[in-house]
């Protein structure tokens, strides 16, 4: 694992700012603190890491990221040292979030509380003492539901401190915070698609094998455990045309192993039965994940971060939403479908909806029913990505809002 250089952040671990603090000078880079509690899986830290890197690289901000679980973080970003209290990776200062954060620390101009993780009390009190109050943003989870636009940018005054928190909602439509997208993402995707040698090199590195023939359907499977996996794998085995499956190491790997009758299906695994060939991949770090999506014809994704990246990949995809009690996740699933399929004819729209619902626990996925609409689904994926881009990207929208409040 490469070692990141460690040095003090420009606004790290100094005494709180005095009351005579001057206004932000024109052109002075904004300082931003992001707090992230890794609740489950990789979605929380995945989104925070993307936003942190964009704010630093594209907007010139000085970003400090507080994370309570560096071991999970290190899987997404291999440059992260899981036992370091403070380190710098990709220009971002990463602090291991601990109980005493805020006791003697300079407060940033912009404070992002990711997913209602609750700021440390000492840090919150120091925010209230700051002469120029920071812009305090509660970055919420992504939702495609209509109510998001109504609640986006709503203020919430703190009951004890003279501070106001603003709710910032990512979304799939205008009037929301948008979703993460780097400025060079489309150019990188187009370059990968245009470079046959690069695609072949990627394939050989990922699988250790020669690329498949052009008539093969390539599918990536990043998913939680799923009772429907066996039925779908059986359909691929019996399909009229060959399917090649790429399975990054993760929670669905056990389902794949059971189907092939092997003990495990991790990195380096390979199995073939009928018209289905499957490769086990190593866990894919965040900066390598886009290439996996670009290499495939259809992508299965889960949670929030991979759901967004699948949309930018301009490929048909199937989303496994994180399940909630009393099926509270299903309206969110339908809201996303409504956005993504608005431009589709009824037959492919209904087929995609049936498949998504089946993959999320309602019925059995029907591969033939879905993939007969491959051409329409592929064209719609490109159209949707172009439409989604009109809402702006999350980091850019965050930066614009913060700067408007600091004038």
Describe this structure in words.
Helices cover 38% and strands 17% of the residues. The protein has helices at 43-59, 70-76, 121-129, 147-151, 185-194, 196-207, 229-237, 253-260, 286-295, 305-312, 330-340, 346-359, 367-371, 374-389, 394-405, and strands at 31-36, 62-67, 86-89, 92-96, 110-114, 135-139, 155-157, 164-168, 217-221, 243-248, 270-273, 276-281, 298-302, 317-320. Helix 7 (229-237) crosses helix 8 (253-260) and helix 11 (330-340) runs antiparallel to helix 12 (346-359).
Task: Briefly characterize the structure.
This protein is 38% helix and 17% strand. It has helices at 43-59, 70-76, 121-129, 147-151, 185-194, 196-207, 229-237, 253-260, 286-295, 305-312, 330-340, 346-359, 367-371, 374-389, 394-405; strands at 31-36, 62-67, 86-89, 92-96, 110-114, 135-139, 155-157, 164-168, 217-221, 243-248, 270-273, 276-281, 298-302, 317-320.
List the helices and strands and how they pair.
Layout: E1 31-36, H1 43-59, E2 62-67, H2 70-76, E3 86-89, E4 92-96, E5 110-114, H3 121-129, E6 135-139, H4 147-151, E7 155-157, E8 164-168, H5 185-194, H6 196-207, E9 217-221, H7 229-237, E10 243-248, H8 253-260, E11 270-273, E12 276-281, H9 286-295, E13 298-302, H10 305-312, E14 317-320, H11 330-340, H12 346-359, H13 367-371, H14 374-389, H15 394-405
Helix pairs in contact: 1-15, 7-8, 11-12
What would the keywords be for this entry?
407 residues, alpha/beta, eight-stranded mixed beta sheet, 14 strands, disordered N terminus
- Report Rg: 22 Å
Main β-sheet description: 8 strands, mixed
* Overall pLDDT score: 90
Q: Name the shape in a single word.
A: globular
User: What's the quaternary structure here?
Assistant: single chain
Q: Per DSSP, what share of the residues sits in E-state strands of 2 or more residues?
A: 15-25%
The secondary-structure element order is EHEHEEEHEHEEHHEHEHEEHEHEHHHHH
Q: Indicate the percent of residues in helices.
A: 25-40%
In order across it, which strands form the biggest sheet?
A: 3-4-2-1-5-6-8-7
Distance between the termini: 42 Å
> How many H/I helical runs?
15
Instruction: Extract low-pLDDT stretches.
Output: 1-22
Secondary structure: number of strands: 14
Q: SS-based structural class?
A: alpha/beta
């Amino acid at each position: 694992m490469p070692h990141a250089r460690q040095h003090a952040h420009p606004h790290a671990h100094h005494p709180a700012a005095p009351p005579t603090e001057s206004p932000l000078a024109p052109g002075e880079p904004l300082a931003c603190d992001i707090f992230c509690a890794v609740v489950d899986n990789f979605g929380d830290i995945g989104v925070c890491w993307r936003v942190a890197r964009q704010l630093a690289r594209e907007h010139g901000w000085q970003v400090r990221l507080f994370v309570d679980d560096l071991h999970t973080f290190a899987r997404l970003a291999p440059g992260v040292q899981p036992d370091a209290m403070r380190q710098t990776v990709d220009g971002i200062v990463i602090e291991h979030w601990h109980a005493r954060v805020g006791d003697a620390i300079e407060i940033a101009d912009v404070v992002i509380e990711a997913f209602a993780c609750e700021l440390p009390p000492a840090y919150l009190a120091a925010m209230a003492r700051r002469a120029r109050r920071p812009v305090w943003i509660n970055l919420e989870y992504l939702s495609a539901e209509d109510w998001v636009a109504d609640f986006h940018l709503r203020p919430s005054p703190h009951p004890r401190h003279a501070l106001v928190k603003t709710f910032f909602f990512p979304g799939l439509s205008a009037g929301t915070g948008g979703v993460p997208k780097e400025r060079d993402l489309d150019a990188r995707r187009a370059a990968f698609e245009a470079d046959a040698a690069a695609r072949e090199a990627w394939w050989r590195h990922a699988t250790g094998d020669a690329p498949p023939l052009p008539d093969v359907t390539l599918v990536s499977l990043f998913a939680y455990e799923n009772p429907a996996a066996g039925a779908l794998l059986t359909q691929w085995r019996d399909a009229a045309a060959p399917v090649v499956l790429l399975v990054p190491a993760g929670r669905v790997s056990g389902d794949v192993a059971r189907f092939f009758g092997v003990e495990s299906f991790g990195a380096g695994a390979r199995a073939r039965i009928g018209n289905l060939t499957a490769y086990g991949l190593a866990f894919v770090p965040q900066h390598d994940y886009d290439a996996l999506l670009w290499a495939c014809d259809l992508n299965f994704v889960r949670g929030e971060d991979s759901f967004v990246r699948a949309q930018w990949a301009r490929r048909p995809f199937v989303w496994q939403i994180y399940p909630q009690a009393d099926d509270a996740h299903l309206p969110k699933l339908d809201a996303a479908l409504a956005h993504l399929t608005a431009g589709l004819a009824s037959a492919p729209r209904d087929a995609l909806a049936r498949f998504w619902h089946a993959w999320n626990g309602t019925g059995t996925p029907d591969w033939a029913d879905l993939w007969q609409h491959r051409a329409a689904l592929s064209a719609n994926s490109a159209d949707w990505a172009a439409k989604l881009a009109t809402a702006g990207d999350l980091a850019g929208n965050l930066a614009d809002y913060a700067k408007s409040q600091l004038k």
